[in-house]
Each structure stands twice: as C-alpha cells, then as structure tokens.
Amino acid sequence: MIGYAGADLAIALINVILLGLLFVIGVAIARMRSLFAIVMLSGIYSLISATWFVALDAVDVAFTEAAVGAGISTALLLGAMLLTARTAKPETGAMRIVPILVVIATGAMLVYATIDLPAFGDPDSPANTYVGTDYIERTPQEIAVPNIVTAVLASYRGFDTLGETGVVFAAALSVILLLGFGERSLSATFKRKKDKS
Amino acid sequence: MLEFVLERGNYWAIIGLMMIGLYTLFAATNFIKKLVGLSIFQTSIILFYISLSRIDGGTAPILYGKDAKGHGGGHDEANAAYGAGEAAGRGVADAAHGASDAAHAGASHGMEHIYSNPLPHVLMLTAIVVGVATLAVGLAIVVRIREAYGTIESDEVRTTDLEVARAEYAVDKSEEASAA
Questions:
Q1: What is the ipTM of this complex?
Q2: In this predicted model, what pLDDT tens digit does every residue of A50-98 receive, in sequence order?
Q3: Which of residues 142-171 of A touch B (CB under 8 A)?
Q4: Predicted TM-score of the model (pTM)
Q5: What span, in angstroms and rounded, lies between the C-alpha atoms of A134 and A129?
Q6: Is A180 helix (H, G, I), strand (E, B) or coil?
C-alpha cells in the first residue's frame, strides 16, 4: 500500500498552505459586500488554484486556469460589474440559516463518501489504471507529440474538442444576442416604444 | 488512523471549498456574487479531479528522456533494469521507500518515468473553457436584468415582478368592471 508516507513532505506542506489560502479567500468572498473586491479575490483564487495544479503535476490545466480562470473570467466579471452595480446587499439573517443547513448536509454526505475513495496519490487506484495508462503507453508510438495531454486532446479525442469549440461558439452567439452589438440601450428602447405609441 | 486522515485530507479540504461556493451561490442575493460562488464551486470540482489524477513520485504527463523517443518494443528489459537500479541507486535507508519505487516501476508499464494520469487533465481543460463560456452567458443575462429591472438583487427583482403582476391584475379587474 503506497500512501501518503511515500509522498514528499514538501509537497504535503505546499498542499496544506495552498489549500489554506484558498479556504481563507473563499470565506472572504462569501462574507464581502464590495463587488470589486469579490471579483479581484476570485481572480486571486484562480491563480492560487493554478499554483496548486502545478504542485499536482497538471501543468496544462494550470496554464489554462491561469489564462482563462484568472484572466478572461476576471475581465468578464469586471465588465459586468462596471455595467451593473458596485456593492452587494447584505444577506438577512433569515436567508442565511437554510443555505447553511443545506451546505452542511451536502458536505457531510460527501465526506462520508470519501471514506471509500482511494488514497491521495495511489498509483493503483481505479482512476489511474486502465484507460489513463493505455494513453500513456500508446502516445510515444502513435503520435509525434511528447505532451500526452495535447495528444489526447487533439488527436485521440479530437471530436470532443470540436464539440467544445461548438459550445464556446454558442455561448458567444448567445452573449451577442442578449447584449446586442452595443447599439441598443435602455433609453433607446424606451424611445422606440414612445415613437410607436 | 492518522495516515487515513492524511490520505484523505485533500479531499476534505476540497469539500470545504465546495461548501463555501455552494453557500455563496445559495445565500447571496446579488447575481454577480452568485456567479462568483458558482465559479468557486466549479473550481473545487476541478481541484478534486486533478487530485485524483496525481500519482506519488510521478511527474507531469510530458514524455522526456528515453520515453520521448518512441519505437516501443525492445526497451522493456532495459527499462526494468533501469528502474531497479534507480530504486537501489537512490540509497534511501527506508526499505519501504525502495519497495514503493519498485512498485512504481511495475505500475509504469515499461516507461522510464512515472507520469500522472493525463485523462482527468484533458477533461478538466474542457471543463474550464466551458465554465468560462457559461459564466459569460450568465453575466450577459445579469446585464440584461439590470437594464430591465434597474437592480441585480434577486429579492428586489422578485418584488418588482410581484408589483407588476398586481398592477396588471388591478387593471384587468377595473376593465371588467367598466365593461359590465
């Protein structure tokens, strides 16, 4: 049984520090009312989780999270914040207790489920055997790209990536349909209604 | 017992992050704050998948050294010898550590190095990109709600809806009364 004892102590320490930072930032986001601070903290949250992805050997995911999660998401949230409001209303006491109960119940059920999960870093866990090792073995023979993630993403599962591109296109299209190209504003809508009547 | 906790502490920390995101999603009345909570929730799921893909002593799934050359067969014996030599060569006093290295050499199926599982990485790359697409659509809807209602607080939107419905009901009633 290869468990945490075989893992590097430094990695364990990095895990604890980064997860603690993520936790503190999450609590701060849940408690804050300034939307600007919330948006900035969510960008920091994405950056720290990207750092943790590097510690977990997922360099491609870290790259994407830093570019998309910390970059594009923060820009989108900032733009939406500038178009709407700067502060959020405080939650009332009655609105807090039900979400807390639901969240604690969900968390308790998930923690109960983790008892059956394989240990962190276990090479013989079901997730890490069959298909994953097959891709690792086949990539050097079949594809001339040393990065296995790229090989799987672009070659073995290229149709999935095509579908993902379709999803992004549909999202961009719906944003354009919702917001228009910038020619329509609230006052223009009112004016058009007045002209008709 | 302590080992059991240490092996699963990561999962529990991720569940804690997920709870924060879910709470923000439920409790916040501000739509933008709700969406930030949703993205925290999503990030915690991604963290969970990535932590499942990690293998002790492994590296990022980018082939290097002898593995990168390709051509497969014929290297297996050399690789096994290399793995054994590596396990011995590290000179680790801990016998269990050397045994775990040998087990790793067995688990890596003729590869020179151990690589973490690339499949969850691929899935989560897709999830991140799709997540930012849905976030963009959600924010566009929030901007439209602001244009229509003048607010982005869910309870105020509900109050406005109720008032409009009541006013329309009153107008219908008065029209019926005048017709009769």
A1: 0.84
A2: 999 988 888 899 999 999 988 999 999 999 888 888 887 777 766 678 8
A3: 144, 146-149, 152-153, 157, 160-161, 164, 167-168, 170-171
A4: 0.79
A5: 8
A6: coil
